[in-house]
Design goal:
This protein is mostly helical and 463 residues long. The protein has 18 helices and three strands. It has two domains: 195 residues, Up-down Bundle (Growth Hormone, Chain: A), CATH 1.20.1250; 227 residues, MFS general substrate transporter like domains (Growth Hormone, Chain: A, Up-down Bundle). Helix 3 packs parallel to helix 7, helix 4 runs antiparallel to helix 7 and helix 11 runs parallel beside helix 17.
């Protein structure tokens, strides 16, 4: 009696297996396993990254809405330049404050779930804005609406924390860079939307700008619900944030990030208004100023990956140091142009500030893992830790510091807008603010040299 041959799967064949799911949650996630990543993990991670970028992009746009809306607030609204700068400062403050809780929310609620929640939260400011902003609305109402727009600033932190869990160590920099850059471009995108509204229907309809984002917000929430995943392996490292907060390097890097990201977001919010006030004879209408405002945030967003690349090649601390030298030079050029009333020089100086702020964002972020890797190497050399334990601690503190630096750095945007407001209140021009920025960049470059570049036997090498 003969038995029929049973077909067998060759030993070398690889059959992709979809990870097990419970209610949209992936229980088996092994990005560091090359075979799992190649056959299963990469497509899932890429799908989550695409939706994450879109959702974060919309969040950044909502956060930046008031950088555009202040251009619509003409004489009928009765708001002076100082009052307008306050309107651009309050969303920055709330966005910075929300970044820490948003970082923890991913592990608590799930990446997909929190992306849906955080996207729908963007309706809180946009729907009332689309209804209420018109001549006669009270300044206190505008302040509340501006503050609510800050919810968009928290999306960056949760989006970065979520994508960080999906990718293997060797690809985290690339994925997080795409995620951050795609979000940052939301600042330029909303200013282009504002320009479109101004150019087509005029300054009488500011409510159209937030109104155009309402369907995009709903689309982001629906896409996240349909195509994103929760990871069971995404957990908050117990005590990591507290341990990172006790490390002096955490606060040094956070101050440096105030100088880079704080400048980027602060100038993004203020640039159009400063142009309109400083050069009122050249920019008598909001449309004229809006033609230029999106350029700075756009180049600053696109050039951010270059900062990370330069940091990989020359060292994050060295790139950050010379970057602050360049930022001080850019602020000096803006101050000189303001005094001389030279619009071409003024624009050149501000574009330079955006370019170097973007480079500095990338190089400063690259310093974070380098600092803890260097500390891990010192601990192993001193015999106080095993290599594996030291590297695990370095990764743990790196994730925590990314959250801290992102939150603290965003407060720099508040400082920029408050500096402009106080300068106009006290002196009738922004010149005092530019002097303050030069001093701030000098402090940052001095701090970078003292802590990371000054020859010393205690210096961390490789940062």
């Amino acid at each position: 009696m003969s038995l029929a041959a049973t077909p067998t799967t060759p030993a070398t064949a690889v059959v992709p297996v979809e990870p097990s799911r419970r209610g949209g949650r992936i229980d088996d996630w092994r990005p560091e396993d090359p075979e799992f990543w190649r056959t299963t993990g990469a497509p899932i991670a890429r799908r989550n990254l695409i939706i994450s970028i879109f959702s974060e992009h919309v969040g950044f746009s909502v956060w930046s809405l008031w950088s555009v809306l202040v251009l619509f607030l003409g004489p009928a609204y009765g708001i002076d330049p100082a009052g307008k700068f306050l309107l651009t400062a309050v969303p920055t403050a709330l966005g910075a404050t929300l970044r820490l809780p948003y970082t923890f929310a991913v592990a608590r609620f799930g990446g997909r779930n929190w992306t849906v929640i955080s996207a729908l939260a963007l309706l809180l400011p946009t729907v009332p804005m689309a209804i209420l902003i018109e001549p006669g609305v009270s300044y206190s109402t505008l302040m509340v609406l501006a503050c609510l727009a800050g919810v968009g600033g928290g999306n960056f932190a949760s989006s970065m924390a979520n994508i960080n869990h999906f990718y293997p160590q060797r690809l985290k920099g690339w994925a997080l860079g795409l995620n951050a850059g795609g979000g940052n471009i939301g600042v330029a995108a909303v200013q282009l939307v504002g320009l479109l509204v101004l150019a087509t229907v005029g300054a009488a309809y500011p409510r159209l700008v937030p109104g155009l984002y309402i369907p995009l917000i709903v689309l982001a929430a629906l896409a996240a619900a349909r195509y994103m995943d929760n990871l069971s392996s995404a957990t908050n490292e117990r005590g990591a944030m507290r341990e990172a907060a006790r490390d002096p390097h955490s606060w040094v890097v956070s101050v440096l990030y105030i100088g880079t990201f704080g400048s980027f977001i602060g100038y993004s919010f203020a640039f159009g208004q400063v142009l309109q006030v400083q050069f009122a004879d050249r920019f008598g209408s909001p449309v004229a100023a809006a033609h230029l405002t999106f350029l700075g945030p756009l180049v600053g967003s696109l050039i951010r990956p270059l900062g990370g690349h330069l940091a990989d090649r020359y060292g994050g601390a060295r790139v950050t140091f010379w970057n602050f030298v360049a930022m001080a030079g850019g602020a000096g050029l803006v101050l000189f142009a303001s005094v001389q009333r030279s619009l071409p020089l003024y624009l050149a100086g501000f574009i330079a500030l955006f370019v170097f702020a973007g480079i500095g964002n990338g190089s400063t972020y690259k310093m974070i893992p380098a600092i803890f890797r260097a500390r891990a190497g010192q601990a192993v050399a001193a015999g106080s830790r095993e290599p594996e334990d030291a590297q695990r601690r370095a990764r743990r503190l790196t994730g925590a510091l990314i959250g801290i630096a992102g939150a603290v750095g965003a407060f720099g945007g508040v400082l920029v807008n408050i500096a402009f407001r106080q300068s106009f209140l006290s002196y009738g021009s922004a010149d005092a603010a530019y002097l303050a920025f030069i001093v701030g960049y000098a402090v940052c470059l001095g701090l970078t040299w003292l802590v990371y570049l000054r020859p010393s036997r205690h210096r961390l090498t490789g940062v």
